[in-house]
Amino acid sequence: MNNCEVMESNVESIARMPVPTVNGSTPASKIASIMVKNNIGAVIVVKMGEPVGIVTEKDIINRIIESKKDADDIIAEQVMTSPLITISYDRTVKEAFEIMRSNNVRRLVVLKGKKIVGLLTERRLLLVCFPEHKNELLQKSEKEI
To answer: The CATH number of the domain where 128 resides is what?
Structure first.
């Protein structure tokens, strides 16, 4: 598949699945453990089965430093970004790039109705759209961490 064909692909075909979820009262320490265990940088916060926010590694680190509290004393509701920026599963990769750019975000929750069907990251989009630059993109990602 060339770059032009990828840009017209549905986001569901390249989104990461399954997406770990937590509830609003989950401690930041537990969220961090989930991220490490699954080698991911974000989890989705759900309420009654519906997505209400996202917690990233950066959210946890910033909140702990800012509050000077222990990670066990901070919960998902306190650090999550809400409302979520989402994209429907049947939208294109090109549309995903546009939504990310216009909202200044690096992750989109992929929904089918109100159900989470995946998580799409800027990094994943770049790797899929520009596989010829994979090594360069991975090195850049490592430097940003």
So the answer is: 3.10.580.10
